[in-house]
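name: query_chain
kind: protein
chains: 1
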Amino acid sequence: MRKEKGTLFILVLVLELAVHSESRVVKVPDGPLVRIEGQSVSIRCNVSDYQGPRDQDFEWSLVMGDAEDIGLISTFDPMYSHASVVDRVKSGDISVKKLGEASVELTIKKVRASDSATYRCSTPSTDSTVSGNYNADVELRVIGDTLKVIPVIPQPAVSEGGSVQLQCNASRAYSAHTVLSVTWSFRKGTSSLEEILTFGPDEGVRVGPAFSQRYDDGGLLLDLRGGGFYGVQLKGVKALDQGAYVCTAREWTRQPGGGKGWQKILERSEDMGNVTVTPTARSLTVTAQKNVTLSVEDTLNLTCLVTAEGLLSLGLEVTWLFRPAGAPDSLRELLRVARDGQILTGSELVGSRRTGPGTFGLFLPKAQRSDSGLYSCQVKAWLPQGSGNWYQAAEKTSDPVQVLVTRLEPKLKVNLTAPESPKFTDDPTELLCLVTDLQNLQDGRLSINWTYAKTGPGDTPLSSDSIATLDERGVLVPGDAYRQRLERGDITVVTSDPHSFRLRLLHTRDQDMGFYSCSVAAWTRNPQGGWEKAREVQSSPVTVQWTAKTPVLSVVAHRVREAATGGSTFEMSCLVTSQNLQNPGYSVLILFEDKQGASPHKVVSLSADSVLQLEEGMAASRTDSVALEKTGQQEFRFRLYGAQVSDRGFYYCDVSAWTRDHSHDWNKAVSAQSNKIEIAFADAGPVFNVSIRSVKNGVSPGDTAQMECIMTILGAPPNTGDVAYDVRWFHRPLLVENGQDVPLISVDRWGVVRRTGGSENAECSLERTDTHKFVLSVHHAQDQHMGGYYCTARLWYISASGLWNEGRDHTSTSISLAVKFPFWESVQIPVLCGLGAALAACLLSVVVGLVTAHCCLSRNPMHAPRNKLIDLEMD
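structure:
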């Protein structure tokens, strides 16, 4: 029984597999299908693995989502088409064609933007059982024709060997499911287009047959910058590259069926324009410079100038040709230089150099008469081509230049000027001797001699003296009268370039006024190798003259602030005026005389560079007591702080005017002293102030409070031991109404401390911490110590006679002392007393009430009741 059931199960399973293996399959191409508006589209649909008749029917409809599908066309029902598409079906714009028994093709001749939809291919069922799929969907997208092609050739005219940029901007509005390809083509004359290079549609590169080798050699480069930019660069262009260029852009979509191939849906071509290639042979020019006449033993220098379009890309081979004078049929090669600069042929006596692009020089040292003749320059232009090869593009020879070698005398002109002339004594003077129109010197040298002549009667120069000579070897030879000034550097002789010479007098003196001239000599080599003077030219004299003026300086002192008492501030202003000085600077020295005609003492000085210095006449302890500053262009202020008796006397300014020389050093020109300002005040002793300060404004009970009494001396004597103080402390109680100030403690000038109050004051102490500070300490502070505290001080000082003098009393301001009690300690006794009193009163009232009730309100049992009226009356 079990065996029969198993056999039956296997049979059912085989039947189910057979049914599923023959399930109907309807297929359409993989989507989406992309077409341009106005193009045609054909969509195939086939069915397989079906049952029933071999010839199958098909229906095409538009899938509308939730709405009912719109019928397009059917192979068996002519009334299947929806009313919205009937006209297009009748006109043949939408049609269906059977390709076989199980295959059909839907065709739309001109798609519209509204045709973008999902198309469904359905097959009516002819199967005995429902299995597989009976329809398949494919999406059709119709896009607009938005492909744009903008070609540009930035440089339509290019020289042979140069580069051409072929730029093409291709773009479209929709990029989904489509790609672009760009093709560059070339047309020469009326011939057909020849493909250069194609990029795309699968980002591959296809090169035309005529340009494949050029692409491999790197002469054809693809430039993809993005953003729709496509470019090709043609390098090393030749004449055969001249013609018209075309840019073609194509839009592609994937082929139906999911294959790897591409289907072109749109193509657009634009002419880029013509490219003109200028042959090197047409633009190449060769010129030799120039007709030369030179002396024997001079160096012959000739220049060959080469110009051409795209000169930097050319390889130039230069050959110098020579035809001797008197031999017109004899032409020989002097020198040949390869394009890499290597000398191929030539003599060791002939040299060549390349001084720039297209500039080649020929030099022949020690030219002789036999070197006279015609010289020409022959140039071959080479251009690179693929694989590192070169080809000759052009060849040209210059017109010959005439060279005549003879003995020529140097020629020159000399011009002397004075770029800088003095206006005052000690100003600098500069003379410039310039050599112009120098000819035929070649490798010769120049020497110069500077001379000076005094002015004679009628402004005529007298006999001249040599200042200095710079000989042909560059050696400076000073004149006898100027040797010391040249050695010190007061006079300099400078050669700024081979043709200009400068003489500079850094400090021109009055005796330097007169006539100056320069004499320039040209020197050439003699056959023995030495130097000989060939020519000498002297300049016209230049007059150096000015009106000498004596510098004048005056100083006036004004009292700005009077020192009326000791310790006050004295201020004095010095105003400077000057004449006949050029950009002067001033130094100021303050001098002091204790009496008229006494030897002055230096107090403080200010240099011309505004550097302040305390002089030896001022004690080091008084460094901060003096100040000197520049308050204006020609005004200076002197201040003396805390004037003392020893400061009484006469003060005045000693001013010097300085001018700078060429080296920017200061030189003193003139000095002057001001009038004297006197400090005279009566000696009333030192002036001092008293101030008070508390270390703590508030202390806790039992702590120590400290207060400082501080004396400040104004105009104190130099020695600390020359002053002393009597100090007394007072207390102004806070808890005593209308109380008088209580004296606490005092110390006299000998240091003896006395307590002047009651027994409470034994809790105070007084300590002198330094010469001018006295500290009061209140020990074990309590509430009775609160209140104000102040001190009085009397100054004692030693006068000039050596005796102690008593000064006036000074009283400080008052400061307050507060004793801070904790809150509970301050209120606990009153609170406890109040609670105790309240409890006692309460207990007393209870006792009195009980006694009263017991004695007065209790009834006697022996007592007989009385008449209520009598009781009321009695009450």
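note: The two ends are 135 Å apart (CA to CA).
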